[in-house]
Amino acid sequence: MADPMAMRRAVAGYVEGIHRAYAQQASTFPPAVRGRMPLLAAGRFTVVAAGARNLHVLATTEPLGPLQGEEVELPGSLDGLEWTVRFYDPVVLPALGVIDEGDAARPDEVRGCLGISTVLYHLVTQPGSGLSPHHAGHVGSGLASGHSAAARDFDTLRSRARGREALVDEMQGAAVAGLARAQVLLARAIAPHNPAVGEAVDSALRPGADLDPDGVRRVLVGALGGTAASTVGAV
Q1: How far apart (Å, rounded) are the C-alpha atoms in residues 87 and 105?
Q2: 173 phi and psi, to 5 degrees?
Q3: Using alpha carbons only, how large is the chain's radius of gyration in Å?
Q4: What percent of the chain has pLDDT over 70?
Q5: Tens digits of per-residue pLDDT, 72-97?
Q6: What pLDDT, on a 0 to 100 scale, did the predictor assign at position 90?
Q7: What are the helix (H) ranges across 50-132?
Q8: Is residue 231 over pLDDT 60?
Q9: CA distance 2 to 82
Q10: pLDDT tens digits, 143-152
Q11: Within this chain, do residues 153 and 123 fall inside the same structural domain, yes or no?
């Protein structure tokens, strides 16, 4: 889109579509599960739309301070959810323009450029594409499925890791904050002598490996004799 404000409205509409699908999916879960889902538990949060080569859409509860210079934001809300979408591109934040995403997205570098350390979600798409209501609905439903599965898994872990509930609480807190490495390291602390967990953690932390805290969590649940919750439909 040639009109920057039209593009911003399209992104804001995409974000609202994600949150609407998330809330609709969450309404099918038990109340206590809903209450532990990150977006519903957050109350009010900020969604950052950051344009490097890719469009990064990330939600955080960290305060970004008042608008400065050419920064723009648009408010949004649904029942139980309230957020503000703030927009950054290389004109507003020149450091975004030097991030090299020629071969792959660089979510860690984008978060570092923004100074954001914790996220409720971080999505990556091509600018101007993939912003349809259908795609937003798919993403929102999948995000809700993943968040609810995590909540159920942590309940299972608390019931099976007796004496280590505080570590499970820390791991869940890291999951809500989007701290992938912390989740993986806490899995080892919860089951320090389990070979399956140790192998999963070592694989996740291997240089160049895909850091998959959800996969490690599922291994941990199974290692402690539980059954990991289904994440069918999750993104």
Answers
A1: 18
A2: -60, -40
A3: 18
A4: 95
A5: 999 999 988 999 999 999 999 999 99
A6: 93
A7: 107-114
A8: no
A9: 29
A10: 999 999 998 8
A11: no
Residue 235: closest CA among 89, 122, 76, 75: 122
Question: Is the separation of the CB atoms in 47 and 83 below 8 Å?
Answer: yes
The SS3 call for residue 44 is strand
Residue 126 to residue 1: CA distance in whole angstroms: 13
Reduced to 3 states (helix: H, G, I; strand: E, B; else coil), residue 41 is: helix
Exposure on the CB side of residue 61, measured as CA atoms within 13 A: 12
* Distance from C-alpha of 23 to C-alpha of 35, rounded to nearest angstrom: 12
User: Which amino acid does the sequence have at 21?
Assistant: A
- Tell me the residue range of the domain where 23 lies: 4-131
Q: Are residues 126 and 190 in the same domain?
A: no
CA 3 to chain centre: 29
Residue type, 121: Y
Beta bridge partners of 84: 46, 75
* Residue 211 confidence (pLDDT): 86
Residues 13 and 117 in one domain: yes
Residue 33 has pLDDT above 60, yes or no: yes
